[in-house]
Amino acid sequence: MRQANTAVKRVRHPIPTIDELLQEMNSSKVFSKLDVTWAYHQIEFKPESREITTFVTHKGLFRYKRLMFGISCAPELYQNIMQQVLQGCEGVHNIMDDIIVHASNQVEHDKCLENVVRVLQDKGITLNNDKCEFNMSNVVFMGHVLSGRGIGPADVKVKAVIEAREPRTSPEVRSFLGLFNYSARFISDLATISAPLRALTRKDATFTWGKDEQRSFDELKRRLANAETLGYYDKSALTNVIADASPVGLGAVLIQEHNGELRIISYASRSLSDTERRYSQTEKEALALVWACERFHVYIYGSQFELLTDHKPLECIYSTKSKVCARIERWVLRIQPYTYTVRYIPGPKNIADSLSRLIKEGKTSDNRENVTE
């Protein structure tokens, strides 16, 4: 299909991220997970599209009648079709062939589940009964354990890390770090801890496994094994974005108040580039606020929230009457779409402070683009 894919006209249909779906599951306590049998093969090609899938065998020419793996546009087509099928059904979301039904109580859950199954039957979509899970208090979805208490890393992801042996080559180090792709939100200072290992993955780096690398390897395992359960984002709850900058790094925490108790929704941290490290401290602190907003965009866009900082000048800089340098002015413009107020809190009270203070030479923990000018 390599040559055929060059002729395929792709229509872009975005596939939702896990962050976009998690905030819809606040207060859910009952879950069911549905798995579509041979997902792509449930979608039939139009007759005029079938010829492009023709392939040669020793018994002649054959072509597919249904969507199959290998077509470049298959993922977004399937996602778009499934979203159209499930449109109008309450308490259901899907990422590709994984469908999750959720509700705050058993009655609502059963009503949602019956509706979803009926819609799938009407469309001729079949489910794999062996992989479906019904009426669960917790369920694994896209590498996360979802429950009424909140969000945690899946046991299979944790087990893969705990049982991993020490890497012996740079590619093995890269593979080990890749195990944390679904778990970065649960580890507050991932960029710092993994810095010695990330150094081994750089181009032309000499592979040397010493005490620093072993310490980083063991600490990553320990942190993930003891990862705390994070809360669901609640659009109606009081929201704080705490950000801080040190000479070498940025840290941020998304926090909400649930029933009088503060709950952490997500952590994020990253190191500063060589250029950013030459900024003044005020510029670094201003950058931290911009980066934190854009990092948590999927949660806070369209909602009122407070930006908390331990750098008091930012209260004035991010006010409507401030006159700042060109670089900070551009950053101010970048966060104008957000509805926020900046509030000063002393450094010792700032829990994001420990994230940035410990950043050394690591990369960004969330693989996001740096917010620089």
From TrEMBL:
<dbReference type="GO" id="GO:0016787">
    <property type="term" value="F:hydrolase activity"/>
</dbReference>
<dbReference type="InterPro" id="IPR043502">
    <property type="entry name" value="DNA/RNA_pol_sf"/>
</dbReference>
<protein>
    <recommendedName>
        <fullName>Reverse transcriptase domain-containing protein</fullName>
    </recommendedName>
</protein>
<keyword id="KW-0378">Hydrolase</keyword>
<keyword id="KW-0255">Endonuclease</keyword>
<keyword id="KW-0695">RNA-directed DNA polymerase</keyword>
<dbReference type="InterPro" id="IPR041373">
    <property type="entry name" value="RT_RNaseH"/>
</dbReference>
<dbReference type="GO" id="GO:0003964">
    <property type="term" value="F:RNA-directed DNA polymerase activity"/>
</dbReference>
<keyword id="KW-0808">Transferase</keyword>
<dbReference type="Pfam" id="PF00078">
    <property type="entry name" value="RVT_1"/>
</dbReference>
<dbReference type="InterPro" id="IPR050951">
    <property type="entry name" value="Retrovirus_Pol_polyprotein"/>
</dbReference>
<dbReference type="InterPro" id="IPR000477">
    <property type="entry name" value="RT_dom"/>
</dbReference>
<dbReference type="Pfam" id="PF17917">
    <property type="entry name" value="RT_RNaseH"/>
</dbReference>
<feature type="domain" description="Reverse transcriptase">
    <location>
        <begin position="1"/>
        <end position="146"/>
    </location>
</feature>
<dbReference type="GO" id="GO:0004519">
    <property type="term" value="F:endonuclease activity"/>
</dbReference>
<keyword id="KW-0548">Nucleotidyltransferase</keyword>
<dbReference type="InterPro" id="IPR043128">
    <property type="entry name" value="Rev_trsase/Diguanyl_cyclase"/>
</dbReference>
<keyword id="KW-0540">Nuclease</keyword>
